[in-house]
Amino acid sequence: MVTSFRALVAVATVVAVAFLFPTVIECRVRRYKFNVVTKHVTRLCTTKPIVTVNGQFPGPTLYAREDDNVVVEVVNNVQYNVTIHWHGIRQIRTGWSDGPAYITQCPIPPGQSYVYNFTITRQRGTLLWHAHVLWLRATVHGAIVALPKLNVPYPFQAPDKEVVIILGEWWNSDVEAVISEAMASGLAPNVSDAHTINGYPGPMSKCGSQDGSYMLRVHTGQKYLLRIINAALNEELFFRISGHHLTVVEADAIYTKPFETDTILVGPGQTTNAILSADRPAGRYMMTASTFLDTPIAVDNVTATATLHYTGSLSTDAVTFSNPPPVNATAVASSFIDSLRSMNSPEYPARVPETVDHSLLFVVGMGVNPCNSCPSGIRVMADINNVSFVLPSVALLQAHYYKMSGVFTEDFPQRPPTRFDYTGNNTAAGLGTKTGTKVYRVKYNETVQVVLQGTTFIAPENHPFHLHGFNFFAVARGIGNYDPEESPETFNLVDPIERNTASVPSGGWIAIRFRADNPGVWFMHCHLEIHTTWGLKMAFLVDNGEDPDQSLMPPPNDLPTC
C-alpha cells in the first residue's frame, strides 16, 4: 500500500505541474499551420493578388527555443507548387524538411500538404523562413525567433522589448510574370519598384502613407532588441535609424562580440540582432532601408522608410531624417563586415576547423550562352567553375537515398577548368558556360574549405552565398585574386564570424570553412534570386557516418512526389 500511495502521489504531482506550468511540458514541441493562400494587397497605390502564408505579408513569426521540436503543416491553396525553406536551421539528419525544391524534396502541388518536422540544435537568435521555389519568396517569408533554452539568459543585457524588422522588395507587377518575361528574353528582369520595412514602402514613398506604413513606438530610457532580416530577392541592404546607434549582438543566430554602429548591412537571407537604446530627445526619427551595390548595373534605388516614434511625441512633430549611405558605399559595408566576430567564449566557442580535408576553389560569376529563341540571340547565365547548375526533375536527396541513377553526377569540379586573371580585364571569349546537375561528395565529419572567387565577366558583383545544412566560418576575404600562398596568412582561425550566408565582395574573394557533420544533400547558392535562377548554385552530398545517430533519417510518409 505504501508503494502504491507513493506512486499515486508522484502521478498527481506530475499532473499538477503540467497543469500549473504547461510551457515546461509543451515547449518541447511547437506546432504551426501554414495555409498558403492568395490575398489582394495594395502598395504604391497599386492593388494586386500576392501569395501569402495565412493571409499575412510578411508572414507569421515562428517562435521556438533551442532544442525544441518544430512541426509545421504547410497546406497549398494556390495555383503554384510550393515549398518552405527554414533558412539557417541546421536540419541535423532531417534534410527532408530543408525545403529547396528538387534538392531535398519535390514541391507541394496545389491542393496538397506536407509536414515539416525539425529540431533547433545549438542555435539561438533570429533566422527566417521563405518559399524556395520559383520567385514566391518575394511575398512568402517570415521570421524565425529561436529563443535560448528556458532559464538561460542572453549574453548581453536583457532588452525591455523585442521587435522583428523584415526588409523586403515590392513589384507592382506579378513577380512570376517578371521572371518569366526575363527568361524568355534571355536578359535581366525588371528591378523592383520599392523596398519595404515590415511590408510597407513607407511614408516617403510616392504614395505616402496611403498604403499604410510601419511605426515602432518606443519609451525613453528603454532598450529594444531589433531582429533585422533581409527577405529581399536581389539586393543587399543598409539599415539605419536617424540619430541613433545600434549595438550588434548576433548574426545568423550566432552571438557576436558586441560592437556599435550607425549602419547595418544585411544581404538577402542574412539576419542581424542589434540593441537600440531609446536615449534621444522625444520625437520622431526616420528608419531607412537602402540598397548597397558597388557595381554599375540596374538596381532598385528607392529607399524604404518607417518611423521610430517616442511615446509622448505628436504625429505632427517633424521627423528627424539623415540620408542613408550612398548606394556604392563600399567602405561602410566593409567596415560592418570586418567588425563581425564570433564570441569564442567557454559558453559559445568558435570551433573553427584548423585543418581541411577538402580545399576547393569555386570561381563564381556571370556568363553568356547562345539562345536561338531569345530576341537578343543570347542568354545570360551564371556558373561555378564554369558549371551552370540545372535542377533535376527528381529531388536530389530522394535520388541519393533511393540510389536512383541518371539524376546527378558526383563530378562537380574542385577548381575551375582553366586558371586566368579572374578579376582582370576579361574578354567575351571566356563567357561561355556548361550546364549540368553535379554534386561534390564528402565523407561524414570531413572538413571543407571553400574559396569563393568573384570574376569581372559582364560586371563584378557581390554574391551573398548561402549554405544549407551547415554554419560556416568566414575566415578571410579580400579584393582581387585569391593567392594560395599569401592569402592564407590573413586567415582568422580564432574568432571569425560564424554564419550561414556571406558575401563574395565585388571583384574579390571570401574563404569559408565548415565541418561536414550533417548527412544528406545540401544546396549552396547565391541568394540573389536572379543569380540562382541563372544557375549560380551547386550541392554537397555528405555521406552517413558510422553510427545510427550520424545517418540521414528515413523520408516521411507524406513526402511529396514529383
Automatic annotation (TrEMBL):
A Pfam family hit: Cu-oxidase
According to its UniProt record, the EC number is 1.10.3.2
Check the record and name the PROSITE patterns matching this protein: MULTICOPPER_OXIDASE1, MULTICOPPER_OXIDASE2
Quote the cellular component terms of the Gene Ontology held in the record: apoplast
Q: Where is this gene product found?
A: Secreted, Extracellular space, Apoplast
* Protein name from the UniProt record: Laccase
Q: What does this protein do?
A: Lignin degradation and detoxification of lignin-derived products.
* Cofactors: Cu cation
**Alphabetized NCBIfam families for the sequence:** laccase
Task: Give the cofactor binding note.
Answer: Binds 4 Cu cations per monomer.
Q: Which domain of life is it from?
A: Eukaryota
- Entry keyword set: Apoplast, Copper, Lignin degradation, Metal-binding, Oxidoreductase, Repeat, Secreted
Q: Plastocyanin-like domain location, by residue? A: 36-146, 162-313, 411-545
Q: Which GO terms describe its biological process?
A: lignin catabolic process
Family, per entry: Belongs to the multicopper oxidase family.
Q: State the reactions this protein catalyses.
A: 4 hydroquinone + O2 = 4 benzosemiquinone + 2 H2O
Q: Major place of localization?
A: secreted
Show the GO MF annotations.
copper ion binding; hydroquinone:oxygen oxidoreductase activity
